[in-house]
Specification:
mainly alpha; Farnesyl Diphosphate Synthase; 2 domains; about 75% helix; globular
Length: about 350
């Protein structure tokens, strides 16, 4: 084995090993994807997590974050830039797995350069678009992101999640023979909603954590003010009713986007079993999480973590596997997840 082959193998092993530590939702689904497609989605996901970790790093000034994001973008085109970037991110702190991922950026970039040319081009396009958007918002809000309007909220979600929807759809088209031109166009129409629906649910679930630990508030100020609150009072107990009313608009937005995401899932050809499962799992978890957010209006003010149970995760996973070939079965599973918990006697 040559030194180059050994380094590529080390990079592949690192990517496989680090993935479960930085992903609660996608790690299982990524493992289901075969061959080059699985390698591409795993690598792309880790590149996105590196950018996200930089954006969220509370100890870095906005100018430092912007500089690191620009340097990371350069690494996607220039292998020589990776050494300097790796040196610069050595000071990042935070969750252990995310810190280890960022410090191991060189290995993820080696994996990225080993992707087939066409695949790498898709990853470059959409990860680059994500980095561009993150940098824009970091510079626009140097003292911590404070989204002002619904329009700005949708723009932010496009950059950090809509881009992922488009990236996945491009990868499906390249690697899955059953997704032809017609299927690709139908999926592409809903790609943005698929990514953004999952993002909005995560934002609603993590309002307190984002505000307290990352100094970021994504709930639009205009929504809060319309209901008698503001960013400064987002976690204040005596504004709980007003904050819940403001969040209601985002909850409705999330329901609409989730329904578009469901249509995205059901458009994927039945023969693309692994891709259907990959999309079904996070979608079902998002429906169940939004259901619980809706049922617990005071959770944010009480700083509670809204999270579906492990038993429900296992139940939804098992039923997804059993029903993956049937649109009727998946649609019924979605409807159950959105209305009440589903827990089998496992």
């Amino acid at each position: 084995m040559t030194r180059r082959d050994a380094r590529a193998r080390e990079a592949d092993e690192f990517c496989r090993e680090i993935l479960p530590g930085v992903s609660r939702t996608f790690a299982v689904g990524i493992r289901l994807l075969p061959g080059d497609l699985g390698d591409a989605v795993r690598c792309a996901y880790l590149l996105c997590r590196i950018a996200d970790t930089i954006e969220d790093a509370p100890q870095l000034a906005a100018s430092e974050k912007a500089g690191l994001l620009a340097a990371f973008d350069d690494c996607l085109d220039d292998a020589r830039a990776a050494d300097e970037f790796t040196r610069r991110v050595a000071a990042i702190s935070g969750e252990a797995a995310h810190v280890r991922l960022v410090r191991g950026s060189m290995l993820v970039l080696i994996s990225y350069r080993g992707l087939p040319d066409a695949t790498r081009a898709h990853v470059r396009r959409w990860v680059g678009e994500m980095i561009l958007g993150m940098r824009k918002f970091v510079l626009a809000y140097p003292h911590g992101i404070r989204i002002q309007s619904i329009e700005e909220y949708r723009e932010y979600c496009y950059y950090v999640a809509g881009t992922v929807g488009y990236l996945l759809t491009d990868l499906w088209r390249e690697h899955e023979a059953s997704i032809g031109a017609r299927e690709y166009e139908a999926l592409r129409e809903r790609s943005r909603a698929f990514g953004e629906a999952l993002q909005t649910v995560n934002i609603l679930k993590d309002v307190a954590r984002d505000a307290e630990h990352e100094n970021s508030i994504y709930i639009p100020e205009e929504l809060l003010r319309a209901h008698g609150s503001e960013h400064a009072a987002i976690l204040t107990a005596d504004r709980g009713r007003e904050n819940h009313a403001a969040l209601g608009a985002l909850v409705q937005l999330a329901w609409r986007d989730l329904d578009h995401a469901k249509a995205y899932l059901l458009t994927i050809p039945r023969r693309a079993v692994a891709i259907r499962l990959f999309c079904a799992l996070p979608l079902l978890f998002a429906y169940a999480t939004l259901r619980d957010i809706t049922a617990r209006p005071g959770a944010i003010s009480r700083r509670e973590n809204v999270k579906i149970s492990r038993r429900e995760v296992k139940s939804l996973t098992l039923l997804s596997v059993l029903g993956v070939m049937s649109n009727r079965a998946l649609a019924a599973l979605v409807e159950r997840a959105r209305t009440k918990p589903l827990v089998l006697g496992l």
